[in-house]
Amino acid sequence: MPSWPPVFHGVERQDVLDQDGDTRGRIRRVALASAIGTTIEWYDYFAYSTATALVFNHAFFPKLSAASGTLAAFATLGVGFVARPLGGIVWGHFGDRVGRKAMLVASLLLMGVATAGVGVLPTYAEAGVVAPVLLVVLRVLQGISAGGEWGGAALMAVEHAPEGRRGRYGSFSQIGVPAGLILAQLVFFALNSSLTPEAFRSWGWRVPFLLSLVLVAVGLVIRLRVEESPVFARLRTDDKRSKLPIVEVLRARPWQVLTAAVSFIANTALGYIFFAYLLSYGTSVLKLSSATMLVVVITGSVVWLASIVGAASWSDTAGRKPVYLAGSVLLVVWSIPFFLLVDTRQPWLLIVAVTVLNIGLGATYGPQAALFAELFEPRFRYSGSSFAYAVGAVLGGGFAPLIATALQNATGTSMPVALYMVGVSVLSLLAVLAFPRRPLVAATAGRG
């Protein structure tokens, strides 16, 4: 096996950076900014998901039956996913042309405005059909923002990281997802526990969305203080930037885009079934309290966060592919036992179910930032990573809660939902098997 070359397409390896105290401090600041920024961004996104499961059917679709209202609410959730590839193309283009940092600031601003807008929306009772239409528009803006957020945060962390630790540092962008989910769930849990059901449905559900304004302000301060990615800075200095990065990446690396996107389908589908559909299923079908279900989801999210960090660090020594394979196999074999335990209605068995599921989710998400970066050359890396991530999210999580709800309503049982989970997990497993054993672009993304 030949050694990895020191230069790839005119971009020097970043592991030659001096590892003095100032450099280590800079890398830590970037990692922290990536984690906090993505936590805030995904808090906004998951506040919407949680409200969809708990209240949007009553606030925006009251004329429909309970089941149809839930389906309509989950459909608005899916609309945001449809917009994510567009966001991936737009943010990816400017991220590869203007810079990673600028796009992170822009995406956070857009997400904050859209989320706060949901908090001041009139309900159907106040504005009629205009209310759900405006809800969909704001959800589309959230989707466009999310389509570019992940790529920028992941690349900032990975491209600043030292050699041999890109999985670990890339995990800082990944933990923002469960951390944002935990934060959103805790806010909803506090409101749900302290307010009457009438007060929560009347105005309490708006508080998490308005709180976004404060969180976004904090995130902007942090992100504005970090330095641009050294990989992009060198591209700009050497004038090696792609003129049309999305076109170039689809021409040069179509197989990598396809396999990366398909590999993400199971993670995002099962993830949204866990933290969006499960809330609705537990409260409306199993007749468990909202407080119980929120505790179950929060517990699973903590496990997810921990397993992301562990899996990402493991991938720096074992390799990305073996870690992905282990997580993918676990998702396949656990999908049916997951619902068998959930349907017992026993809280401690629900916790067992979500704990094991989230270990699999962590193993298939923790190494993702480093792996996707290693699939694409720096000049079109933002576009390739963001587009693959967004397409996988659409195909997997975009309509997973809607599909799960429809399957359960049509059959009256959870087993078709479990089989759906098995199907998407097998599909992603096949894509993971197609990954190269070693990084494709190791010169600027680490050997891992």
Automatic annotation (TrEMBL):
GO terms for cellular component: plasma membrane. Residues 30-440 form the Major facilitator superfamily (MFS) profile domain. The keyword Transmembrane applies. It is found in: Cell membrane. It comes from the Bacteria. Keywords: Cell membrane, Membrane, Symport, Transmembrane, Transmembrane helix, Transport. One of its GO terms (molecular function) is symporter activity. The chain crosses the membrane at residues 64-83, 104-125, 131-157, 169-191, 203-226, 257-279, 291-311, 323-342, 348-366, 387-405, 417-435. It is a multi-pass membrane protein. Coiled coil: none annotated. PROSITE patterns: MFS. Belongs to the major facilitator superfamily. Metabolite:H+ Symporter (MHS) family (TC 2.A.1.6) family. PANTHER family: SHIKIMATE TRANSPORTER. May be a proton symporter involved in the uptake of osmolytes such as proline and glycine betaine. This is Putative proline/betaine transporter.
